[in-house]
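Re: beginner question about structure tokens

> Can someone show what the tokenized structure looks like for a real chain? I only ever see the sequence side.

Sure, here's an example I had lying around. Input first:
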Amino acid sequence: MASSATAEILVADDERSIRWVLREALTADGHHVREATTGTEALAALGSGEVDLAFLDIRMPEVSGLDVVTRAQEAGCSATLVIMTAQTTMANAVEAMKRGAYDYLTKPFDLDVVRLLVTRALETRRLSSRVDTLRVELKKRVEVGVDLIGRSPPMQAIYKLLGRVAKNDATVLIEGESGTGKELIAKAVHYHSPRWEGPFVAINCSAIPRDLLESELFGYERGAFTGAVERRAGKFEQASGGTLFLDEIGDMPLELQAKLLRVLQEREFQRVGGRDSLRADMRVVAATNQNLAEAVREGRFREDLYFRLNVVPIHVPPLRERVGDIPELIEYFIDKINRDLGTDKTDISADAEAMLVQYPWPGNVRELENALIRASVIAPERTLMPSDFALSAARPIKSARPDSMSDVVRERAQAQFDALGGRDPIDLYANLLGEFERPLLEVALERTGGNQVRAAQILGINRNTLRKKLLQLGLNARHRRV
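And the corresponding structure tokens:
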């Protein structure tokens, strides 16, 4: 919609003098005016979707102004409609408003009254459009809150961190395996921040060819390169006032990393082929499934950019590390699939749920959703059964008999090597210790009802050491402190 200074206004009247007077006055005020001499022409103009405000004479050839209002309303026309009439009867005024007209103008009219009416109508239209936008954005915020599923300690720690970082513009780096929901976390940061009314613009740095990524990010001027026939805004401009989400940031070429660093430092950038510096008014949230610290050591990622991005790190755990969330995720996805695909699944059998809980989910939450979509589509009954899933071909399901501790440690250590494609992992000891330390402390606290003194005695560690570890792991909020 055009602003009040550049509105598209239709004047529909079979009297040439009326059209001329309004055109001259409104054009002088900076508006663009189009004319119609019949109701049919007025309907055609309104049907274009380009008109912001229309003045419609109540008596016109072919279709009256009142009927134009009715038909335009039925067609979903968004223009603000004003009836013009020389018959100042109450019946005309009431009928015009009943049919959906914004106001009516009595002939002969004072041009100052016309200008005031235009200003008021366009301001009302702007506010109405703003309310509609806020409704859409509010719906997105609610949906983001719903889509973040999980009550496990790792997810609770993420929720608390989101509550802290959403209040400011600090740069956020989200790390986690593919399919863990990193973009959902980024949207949660945006829609719970003061910038939530602005745009959320996402770009996947690994999905765009290297030679096109720069122009996608920064935009370009006409003639900057072959095929640049017009100026184009990049993601930084599109995200102005909002949030720019740089997904798979680890795949950004080194030469572009230097330019991104400058944007983060100077808060300004230039379009490709341009000379003017543009203000970068957006928050940056980046995500990666790589180990950026290792990429820095290998020279694949700039150290200075890494520190600029890693202001607030958020680690999204893989699904195998929060298996307690799987039943809740299953229930959520079944409801979502029923809504989206029109399926009618109401439940999942206990055996099928146990099978899904035991499965290691290398593709994480995304793989779980896809498995449930397939099962919901092919299942003959309303309850999902183990036979409706095809998981064993992808990766064997864990045995019902628990492995020995040494086997579990060996398997988890080997998985860390496998995940890096043969490269040596970093901090393997600390990583594995962290995996086993959390459940060990959880079990001790659960068995003691949250009594930290007894839990420390069972574990054979000092009570202050236990408190420190609980704080580090984000477990102290879940259990009663003594």
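Each token stands for a local structural state, so reading them left to right follows the chain. Residues 405-473 form a domain with the Arc Repressor Mutant, subunit A fold (CATH 1.10.10.60).
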